[in-house]
Amino acid sequence: MNNMTDSEKNKNIIIVDDDQTWLNQLSRAFERRGIILMLQSQ
What is the pTM of this model? Predict the structure, then answer.
């Protein structure tokens, strides 16, 4: 179980303005480690 507070979770969000395949793979790897990588395609 993850015991992070909401403020700690908010520090673990990275926003990337691109939608490349390798970024999707990186996003999934980060998510497994508790970091959210948000991909925004233009």
Answer: 0.50
